[in-house]
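Weekly sync, protein design subgroup
Attendees: M.S., D.O., the rotation student, P.L. (late)

Item 1: inverse folding check
M.S. brought a backbone from last month's batch and wanted to see whether the design step gives back something sensible before we order anything. D.O. pointed out we never logged the input encoding, so this time it goes straight into the notes. Structure tokens as presented (333 positions):
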């Protein structure tokens, strides 16, 4: 089997380190791994397949001879190095939002639109974490009838804000248990025992940038250019795994039985839906793995052509790192 030289841009972050773990876990054909980071981390080491791999400085020259670059850095870093990556002949699978809505760049969830990988021009974008989880859950319903609109609320874990999110939550819980105060640094308000109904800045008519990603990215991934989405994104005091409540609206009536059958067969999904037995998706059960759990399937009582459901998925794995590795697997096939 051919081996590939793989670079991880932003290797020291939570997603970058998860990418390295999943490359090893899925036995991706890595001939050489090059972890890249800033000057602050260059020279340190990370473990890969039991060996210490030296972190190299992220610079234009670092991409020479690389086949695939997995991006786990911020937008500005992705934009800075994308020209050098493409010039070096590598394919840049980027987890930032820098290129997601660029019409020249495929936006891919392998269970939904794997064919879009074929028209890349050196860059492929990884969608937003909540978008990945949601479209994986609902895409199979398009075979029953195209989805014309969705109403969604996302309940996003603190780890979605980076490695310091869980630290802040746990520090607040500890401080409050002692009757002490704790000044939030990661989130604008105390997240312990609280919900914060804002992720991202205002972008359109009172909707945040995070909320608009669901509509804009969902249209591109599912090839539904007229799709309308009304989304509310909420930060919740959960360590890992995002949860999404979704109402899908169709042009024709769709039955609960049809939806359950479609979800049960859908790639990347697991049907967990028995209210009488108290069986439904939850963050604790979906963390640390790559399947999107779907349940609470029921008719939408406001729309004869609507269906409601609830889904959960690990936003660090399927919502970011694993999805990128799956894209890389499509490339090597």
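Designed sequence read out in the meeting:
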């Amino acid at each position: 089997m051919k081996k590939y030289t793989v670079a991880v841009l932003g290797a020291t972050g939570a997603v970058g380190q998860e990418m390295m773990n999943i490359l090893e876990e899925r036995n991706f054909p890595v001939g050489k791994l090059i972890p890249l980071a800033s000057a602050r981390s260059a020279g340190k080491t990370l473990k890969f397949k039991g060996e210490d791999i030296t972190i190299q400085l992220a610079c234009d020259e670092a991409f020479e001879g690389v086949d695939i670059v997995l991006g786990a850095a911020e937008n500005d870093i992705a934009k800075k190095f994308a020209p050098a990556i493409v010039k070096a002949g590598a394919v840049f699978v980027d987890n930032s939002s820098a290129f997601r809505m660029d019409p020249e760049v495929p936006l891919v969830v392998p269970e939904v639109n794997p064919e879009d990988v074929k028209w890349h021009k050196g860059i492929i974008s990884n969608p937003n974490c909540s978008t990945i989880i949601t479209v994986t859950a609902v895409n199979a319903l398009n075979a029953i009838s195209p989805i014309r609109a969705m109403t969604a609320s996302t309940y996003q874990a603190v780890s979605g804000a980076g490695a310091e999110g869980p630290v802040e939550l746990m520090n607040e819980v500890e401080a409050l248990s002692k009757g002490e105060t704790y000044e939030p640094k990661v989130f604008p308000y105390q997240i312990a025992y609280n919900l914060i109904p804002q992720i991202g800045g205002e972008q359109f008519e009172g909707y945040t940038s995070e909320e608009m990603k669901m509509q804009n990215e969902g249209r591109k991934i599912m090839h539904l250019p007229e799709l309308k989405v009304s989304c509310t994104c909420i930060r919740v005091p959960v360590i890992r795994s995002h949860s999404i409540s979704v109402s899908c609206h169709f042009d024709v009536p769709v039955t609960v039985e049809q939806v359950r059958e479609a979800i049960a067969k859908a790639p990347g999904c697991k049907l967990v839906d028995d209210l009488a037995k108290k069986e439904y998706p939850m963050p604790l059960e979906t963390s640390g793995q790559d399947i999107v759990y779907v349940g609470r399937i029921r008719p939408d009582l406001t729309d004869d052509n609507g269906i409601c459901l609830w889904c959960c998925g690990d936003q660090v794995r399927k919502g970011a790192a694993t999805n990128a590795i799956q894209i890389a697997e499509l490339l090597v096939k």
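Discussion: The chain has two domains: 4-127+320-332, 131-314. The longest helix spans residues 317-332.
Action: P.L. to compare against the previous round before Friday.
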